[in-house]
């Protein structure tokens, strides 16, 4: 394609301005501060979850250890009570009484040892349960932070999406009726050149690459018909020829 109506070429700058604004909004949405904060919180939640699993496992193991220690103590106490009852019944001989007395002494020592084991296990269990309670509270607080930041993210994204929807409507209206071949070239260049397919030529300067064209290129452009589509020799964008004081895209306002 070599030509397009001058009015269409000028409208192309408005289309470019809308596309630039949409690209800025898309970038803003991808880089919301809330997203970075959520990623940071996600790492913290993951680490805390691992600590919780470890702590819960330790507490479960200690509860079983305490239960076993309690059962061992109870078993010794039951046996000691049975022996004591036999001894006090008076129905045993002197030899059996002596044996029962010795066994009761051994059971008392065994009970003391087992109670010490039980107490130590209970103390460790209490410490681990306290740590688990602290971890659980920290996890709950972190989960609440995530919920708050997610709400911030959703609110910010909704605001951006609403603005983008309005701009897309403007873009559709702006593109309606434009020269099809001109738009096709513009879209192809936009994809190749980082989102910018058209720029104003104001005086000697291409406002796409911000470079000044050399006099020979400028003279060649000046000789071409107004409806001929020209390209910047430096960046390859479509050049829309404007007077030095002419606005490039009067229909678009706002900033990223």
Question: What would the CATH topology of the largest domain be?
Answer: Helix Hairpins
Uncertain spans: 250-256
Based on secondary structure, the structural category is: mainly alpha
**What's the number of structural domains?**
2
> What is the C-level CATH assignment of the largest domain?
Mainly Alpha
Strand order of the largest sheet: 2-1-4-3
The total count of helices amounts to: 5
Fraction of residues in helices?
Answer: over 70%
Q: What's the CATH architecture of the largest domain?
A: Orthogonal Bundle
Shape descriptor? rod-shaped
Q: Termini separation (Å)?
A: 34 Å
Q: Main beta sheet: strand number and arrangement?
A: 4 strands, mixed
Key features?
2 domains; 256 residues; disordered C terminus; rod-shaped; 73% helix; 4 strands; mainly alpha
